[in-house]
Structures are given as C-alpha cells and as structure tokens.
Amino acid sequence: MHGRVKVKSTAQQEEEKRKEREKKLKVYLSARDAVFSKKSNGVLDEEALQLTQQLLSSNPDFATLWNFRREILLHLETVKEEEEMQKLYELELLFTESCLKVNPKSYGSWHHRGWVSSRLPRPDWPRELSLCDRCLSVDDRNFHCWDYRRFVVKASGVPVSQELRFTDRLIGSNFSNYSSWHYRSTLLPLLQPGTPSPCRKPAHVSPTASPQTHGHRVCEEQLLKEYELVQNAFFTDPNDQSAWFYYRWLLGRAEREEMISCVYVSREGERVTVAFSKLVNAPAEGLVLVLDGQPQQVEWRSIHPLFRHSPVWLCELPPGSISDINNEHNLTVHWTEKHTHRDCALYTGRLESWCRDSATDQELFRSELSIEKTSVLQSELQSCGQLLELEPQNKWCLLTTILLMRALDPLGHERETLAHFQTLKEVDPMRSSYYSDLCSKFMIENTILKMEYAEVRVFSLSDKNLSTLCHLDQLLLVTHINLSSNQLLKLPPQFAMLHCLKVLEADNNAIENLEGLYQLPKLEDVSLRNNRLEVPRDGKTENLDLTMGITHSFGHKKSYALSPITSI
C-alpha cells in the first residue's frame, strides 16, 4: 500500500467544497456590503469602482452594481481630463469583455458595453464589430450580441451593403442561422431609403408587393435575387424551418396604407358608419364629420362596447338632419391625424348611400404583377412542385406552394389550395387547427373577391368547413350572409361590423356564443338551427330570450329559427 496516493472520500470532497464556498461567500458579502455602504453615502470614488469590478467579475448579472458603476464613471467625467477618461473607458470595455466570457448572454454586461461605447471620446467601432463576429461564431443566435451589433452598425454608419455581405457569409456557412435570415429582412428594405411604394393603393401580397419596412420597399431586382438565395437553402435542407420562414416573409403582406376605406350613411336612424384600413381609436385620432359644409357635434362609438380600438366606428346625427328623403346631402369624414378624408353623397329618394374602395381596388388580397415578376413566381411555383415530388409530405413546401398560388391567382388555384391544406392537416396534425383557420381565411378572401366581381351584397359560404371568421370589416355593406354547415363555434363581437345585415343563416354549426349578434341594427331574420346554444338557467326557451334581447336593443320586429337546442 506504500507509495499509493490516498483517494479522498466523497464526504471529504464535499466538506472541502463547502468550506471553499463559504470562504468565497464571505468575501463576496463583505465586498457587497462595502459597495452598498459607499452607494448610500454617495461616495463615488475609484475604490468603489474596484469593488464593483470584483463583484461583477464573478456575478455579471448584478444590475444594481452596473448602475452604480455608471454613476461613478459619470462623476469621474467631471473631474478627469478627456484623455484620462478615454483610457478609463477602454479598460471598462476590457472588463465587460471578461464578464461576457463568464456569461455571453449577460443583459447587464451588454447594456453597459453599449453605454460605455456611446460615452467614449474616440470609439473604436471596428473593434466592436470584431467582438460581435467572435461572439456570433460561438453562438450565432445570441440575441444580445445581435442587438449590440445593430447598435454599433447604426452608431458607426456601416453601409447596408456591408452588413448584407456579413449575413451572406453567415448564411453560407449555416443555412439554419435564423438570426441571420431575420437580420437580412431588416436590411433589405434599407437598400432604397426614402423610396415609397410605387402606388397609392396598398398591396397586400408581397411577391406582388415587395416587403416593406417603415414604408420603404425592396427593389424588384434584389427581391428576385433573394428568391434564388432562399431556394438554394431549402433545396439543400427541405426540413429546416429558417429558410422557409424567411421565404414566407418574402411572400408576406405589406402593411396597409392608413386610410378611410368606406363611409356608409343611412336615413334610418340617421346613422353614419366609417370603416378604416386599420384598428383606430376614432375619438382620440381627430375624426370630424362635416354635413353640407357644417361640422357636426357627434359622439363616435365603436361597433361593440368591448372595443376601444376598432376598424369600424359609427355615430348618430342630430334628429332631422338627413331623415327627409326629398333632400340631398353631402358628407365628408376627415381623419385629421392622418390628413385624409372621404366624401359621400346621399341623393334624393335614396335611403342609404356609401363610398368605398373595393377589396380589388385596395389590392387587399393580391395586386397586379409585372410580367417579369409573374414569370419568376411561376418558376418558383414549379420549383416547389419539383421539391414536392421529392418530399411529398414536407409541410414547409406545401404551405409555401399555397402562398405562391394565392399570389399568382387565388381564385384560379382555389381547388389545388384546398387539396394542399388537407394534406397539411394529415402530415402535421398538431397544427391542424392553424391550417383550418388559415384555410378559412383564404376562403373568405376568395368569396369577398367573387362577391365584389358580381357586385352583390349577398355573402354565401355554406358548407366550406370554416372554423373562424375574419375580414368582417370588408362585409360592412352585406345584407344577407349564409354561414350554414361549417365548424363555427361562435359569432364573435367583431360580427357587429356587419351593420347592414338583414338576414343571417348559420344552421348546422357548433355555435355556443352569439355575442356579436346583439349590435346589428338592421337584422330581421336569423336561422340558427342545430347549434350548441345553451339553455338559459331561468328555464325559458332560448328563442324567447334571444328575441327579447335583440328586440329590446333596436326596437325591430324580427323572426328567429333556433330549434332544436342542444344544452352544453
């Protein structure tokens, strides 16, 4: 046994570690108490700087110490020369770099480094970019470092083209680098600063209307290059989601132009209804109604009491303002905050009138394609078709194919789109509800387009497996809607946007909630057979309770068909 190293027992090792931890803790607490003492007494000296450095070296996430350290440095700026502060701040950068080695995702360390860089008399921005390169080579998804890099790029005026080359390099080495794809999406619209979208109307599908950031667009030439780049990525690894997400951004919808999309006026109730292209708070955004050249004192209210922000607002004019059918009136709605307005004329002999841009005019769901862009997107669709032959169950390729079809011809590709959605539900059952909702959204868009091409106010979507309702602000003028034989669970509060609705058919769904039904002033006929409406607790039948509720609100005689009723 002689000459052999004695192996310590586990108990001995644990005891030694415990003593070592206690010793370190004692030193740490002593330094902490000393720092807090100086802080409470307002002592901002270099000794305090050393004490905070000692503590932060072992625990770089102590935010209070970083704050105190900045107080000290700000004080030293008042008593030291610029050259001394330059050296002091350079040492501070070295210190934060050592802290980042302890924790590369330390919020406090990255924030403090940004603060120091902004205070440096002569910052060395290339050095900071080099630090970012090194950190991202270790972890290419370190969002703290990405944020810091954006700060450095902005502060130092690095050209967009240089940063695009940087993302080229990272993406070239790793197609799965989602952060690089995302950063690229923020850079591309800056290639043409100050270039607005070429047409007044908002374009909502971005192969047709280029992606926008802060109102700027990606030039067509660059956009076509991006299609080629991302195609290389998903043909290399069809199951990697990073490139597909970026591709969906390229095929995404641009932000709508802020505008008044419709003004509707009715002599019945002397009501004016206004629809906007986005959610607004009308009273707070300076909505002014002018009738026959005279501003009106009206109270704007949203379509439902629950909504402070809504795309549809309405008001009642003073009694007798427009009730006489023999008089003609001109209305103007001014949206003062956005410096825009819309006129509407109510002619003699008419009970109602409206002025609006249709969904096709607004290019709400698609817009006209240039010949070159049509050719490229057709080629992209063919490429996705080839990939589907190799990977028939690739959900990313299926979903992208749907988006391309909708960009090119949503009505012409409707049947193929529905077939692809069915395949998606089978290969990705976890997201079946998402695909159902997205399919419902596209079906509603198609039906709105068909309705407007036919210039009718009847909206029929029966037996389409709808699971949700959307774009209800586009149905403001609809008088008859058929939603029977779908999978709807409720008529949501947004349903109150259908202010002209007179007839509702919604049989054979799974509707449990009718919240959006009670705010419709013109509703006359409702059919809700074979739904899941709950029987009231007071024992009264549901149709009696529903009739009383709506009739009391609007004073109209209405007819209802609600049986049989299923209790939940």
UniProtKB/TrEMBL annotation:
Rab geranylgeranyltransferase alpha subunit insert-domain domain boundaries: 260-359
Q: Which PROSITE patterns match?
A: LRR, PFTA
Q: Which SUPFAM superfamilies did the record assign?
A: Outer arm dynein light chain 1 (SSF52075), Protein prenylyltransferase (SSF48439), Rab geranylgeranyltransferase alpha-subunit, insert domain (SSF49594)
Q: Which Pfam families match?
A: PPTA (PF01239), RabGGT_insert (PF07711)
Question: Reaction catalysed?
Answer: geranylgeranyl diphosphate + L-cysteinyl-[protein] = S-geranylgeranyl-L-cysteinyl-[protein] + diphosphate
What are this entry's molecular-function GO terms?
Answer: Rab geranylgeranyltransferase activity; zinc ion binding
Give the UniProt record's GO annotations in the biological process aspect: prenylation
Keyword tags:
Leucine-rich repeat, Phosphoprotein, Prenyltransferase, Repeat, Transferase
Q: Where is this region: Disordered?
A: 1-21
**Domain of life assignment:** Eukaryota
Enzyme Commission (EC) number: 2.5.1.60
Q: Which InterPro entries does its entry note?
A: Leu-rich_rpt (IPR001611), LRR_dom_sf (IPR032675), Prenyl_trans_a (IPR002088), RabGGT_asu_insert-dom_sf (IPR036254), RabGGT_asu_insert-domain (IPR009087)
GO cellular component terms, semicolon-separated:
Rab-protein geranylgeranyltransferase complex
Q: Does the keyword Phosphoprotein apply?
A: yes
* Role summary: Catalyzes the transfer of a geranyl-geranyl moiety from geranyl-geranyl pyrophosphate to cysteines occuring in specific C-terminal amino acid sequences.
Q: Which family does the entry's similarity section mention?
A: Belongs to the protein prenyltransferase subunit alpha family.
Protein name, UniProt field: Geranylgeranyl transferase type-2 subunit alpha
Which species? Electrophorus voltai
Q: What is the lineage of its organism?
A: Eukaryota, Metazoa, Chordata, Craniata, Vertebrata
